[in-house]
Amino acid sequence: MAPLVVCPRVPVSLCPRPHSGCAPPGVEPEAFAWFQAVDADGSGRISVRELKQALLNSNWTAFDDDTCLLLINTFDRTRSGRIDVYGFSALLRFIQQWRSLFQQFDRDASGSISLGELQQAFSQLGYNLSPQFSQLLLARYAPSSPRPSIQLDRFIRICVQLQSSTEAFREKDTALLGTARLSYEDFLTMVVTRML
Question: I need a surface site. Which of 13, 83, 93, 169 has the fewest CB within 10 A?
């Protein structure tokens, strides 16, 4: 990344060249400097490909494509498949919050979340899920190994999808009993509107 250039907080319209290093109102100068470094094509918007090149896990692997797409879609207000500086700034704050949680749940400080740590994370996040379900998620999202574990990118993806699915389920479980009756089409609608 290019060195951080901090300029006075002035409205973009007063900045001599709006894309020259002056952060727009509401965007931290560090986030703006990083945005400029990540915006490889200079379009003023970050693509999935550009985001992937900018985000690394603790083991120096790039965030996976699906997580980058999920992040872009979460902060893309125009549904263009790209995010502007405001979306990018919000995305950075979002990732920092998840990174803090990840580090809290990574009890052995290995840089990854194991099955036991994932189960504890779910419990502390308020999800009453079986160890078998946590194992299923690890089997789906962790690389094959004798001791599967997930990096930050997959942790974010699992948690965001779990939140989204839970919100969709709660719309149907109005009595909050943990059960809901729905048609197959209702189920597909929940999947399509929340996951795709």
Answer: 13
Residue among 162, 112, 121, 116 at smallest CA distance from 135 = 116
Sequence letter at residue 115: L
Mean pLDDT for the stretch of residues 7-35: 63
- Cα–Cα distance, 5 to 113 (Å, whole number): 35
CA dihedral 84→86→91→94, nearest 10 degrees, is: -170
Residue 129 CA, chain-centre distance (Å), reads: 21
The span from the CA of 158 to the CA of 150, in Å, is 10
pLDDT at 193 over 80: no
- Give this prediction's pTM: 0.81
In contact, 112 and 151? CB cutoff 8 Å:
yes
C-alpha dihedral over 60, 65, 68, 70, to 10 degrees? -140
pLDDT in tens, 41-84: 999 999 999 999 999 999 999 999 999 999 999 999 999 999 99
CA 12 distance to own-chain centroid: 28
Q: Is 195 helix (H, G, I), strand (E, B) or coil?
A: helix
Cβ partners under 8 Å of residue 44, min gap 6: 19, 84, 85
